[in-house]
């Protein structure tokens, strides 16, 4: 078994404006897995598609099938 070159990261919660609620801020976390190139430590990192994510160093990208994956990360990591 070979080690993966990528770990899993999840999008950092962002602040967005909701036009239906008088422009008030919404705090919304996206549930989409992104690939982060190794080596990495737990914490903020840039995914291979360029999104700021919270990286989880011991969660292998190729084994994280519980949540949807970023299509661009899949393409870059060679898993399309």
Number of strands: 6
Spans of at least 5 consecutive residues whose pLDDT stays below 50 are: 25-29
- Shape field: globular
Order of helices and strands: EEEEEEH
Q: What is the number of helical segments per DSSP (H or I, 4+ residues)?
A: 1
Q: Helix content range of the residues, please?
A: under 10%
Radius of gyration: 14 Å
Q: Would you tell me the overall average pLDDT? A: 77
Class computed from helices, strands and strand pairing: mainly beta
Give an overview in words.
- The protein is mainly β and 80 residues long.
- It contains one helix and six strands; from the N terminus they run ββββββα.
- The strands form two sheets. The protein has a four-stranded antiparallel β-sheet with strand order 4-1-6-5.
- It is globular.
Brief descriptors of the model:
40% strand; four-stranded antiparallel β-sheet; 6 strands; mainly beta; 80 residues; 1 helix; two-stranded antiparallel ribbon
List the helices and strands and how they pair.
Elements: E1 6-11, E2 14-17, E3 25-28, E4 33-37, E5 43-46, E6 52-60, H1 71-77
């Amino acid at each position: 078994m070979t080690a993966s070159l990528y770990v899993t990261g999840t999008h950092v919660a962002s602040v967005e404006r909701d036009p239906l609620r008088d422009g008030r801020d919404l705090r919304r976390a996206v549930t989409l897995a992104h690939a982060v190139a190794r080596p990495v430590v737990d914490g903020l990192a840039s995914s291979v598609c360029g999104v700021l994510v919270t990286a989880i160093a011991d969660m292998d990208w190729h084994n994280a099938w519980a949540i949807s994956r970023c299509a661009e990360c899949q393409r870059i990591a060679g898993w399309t």
